[in-house]
Amino acid sequence: MSNVTKNRINGWLILNKPSGISSAKALGIVKSILNVKKLGHCGTLDPLASGVLPIALGEATKVSSYVLNEKKAYLFDVNWGIETATADLEGDIINQSKNLPTKSQVTDAISSLLGKSLQIPPIYSAIKVNGQPAYKLARLGKKVQLQPREIFIESFNLINHNSKSSRLKVICSKGTYIRSLAVELAKLLNTYAHVGWLYRVFAGPFNEIHSFSLDSLRDLSHSGRIDDAILPLQKGLDDILALDVDDKVAKKLRFGQKVAITLSQNEKKVLVVCGNEPVAIAQVVNGFITPKKVFNI
């Protein structure tokens, strides 16, 4: 079934966000290209960052939190010896050091960051402090104190290294700030650092193979082939058990009714489908399936 029906789009569009614009602005451009009302992105990328930005369209917005909570991968460059106010290229230089780490020192440092840890987000971030984004308060010169958050680093590898910078690849949990990782590495290596380049390789089930540039989306829209860029809603739920039901059961679930089924084990979360069409996210308890989020497709 097409993901574009009756002037409604339900599914996922994976944008390869360019550097230089915010995720919110990129979302606005996509909204204009697709002429849709209901959409949202999963996981903000800094303006200077580029790469995979999943965008939920229509009914997929009901399950965007599942993608938001998934692990992500990044490639990034750490420029050694210079600390900036924003921990990236945008900020003013606030500290410098002539102590530049060797390749082996960087390798040892990144290995020490594997696993669980507490990370303090950068003050130039969108985290709310008393209802205001932290970066706005920081720009006003106000003192900003953010609480540490638990993160998980699954893998951390050095791709290449020279005397002034290192290219790294990290696979990490949601909520991990790459700029903060660069600062943490610098502290371990007794120097300063900032992020010079940042690219998101994947977010949950979506990677760069699925992604489209803004120009590509414009071309597809002008040629009437925008459906080529839309992935089905189910694609964002690959790790959830799928349960195929008949039309009768699907109809009851769409009306919010609990239905008896033959599935023996309890499941906190299942994707109910009828043929190729998603019906609901549901819960199975004691032989009954109860819809939690129903898709109006």
List the helices and strands and how they pair.
Blueprint: E1 4-5, E2 8-9, E3 11-17, H1 23-34, E4 39-41, E5 50-57, H2 64-68, E6 72-80, E7 82-84, E8 93-96, H3 103-111, E9 115-119, E10 128-129, E11 132-133, H4 134-139, E12 149-161, E13 165-172, H5 178-188, E14 193-203, E15 206-207, H6 214-222, E16 230-231, E17 241-244, H7 247-254, E18 259-260, E19 267-274, E20 277-285, E21 288-294
Parallel strand pairs: 5-14, 17-19
Antiparallel strand pairs: 1-2, 3-5, 3-16, 4-5, 6-13, 6-14, 7-8, 9-12, 10-11, 12-13, 14-15, 18-21, 19-20, 20-21
Helix pairs in contact: 1-6
Query: What percent of residues adopt helix (DSSP H or I)?
Result: 10-25%
CATH fold naming of the largest domain: Pseudouridine synthase
Give the DSSP E fraction (strand runs of 2 or more residues): 35-45%
Span from first to last CA?
11 Å
- Tell me the CATH superfamily of the largest domain: Pseudouridine synthase
Shape: elongated
Count of distinct strands: 21
Class computed from helices, strands and strand pairing: alpha+beta
Query: How many structural domains can be distinguished in the coordinates?
Result: 3
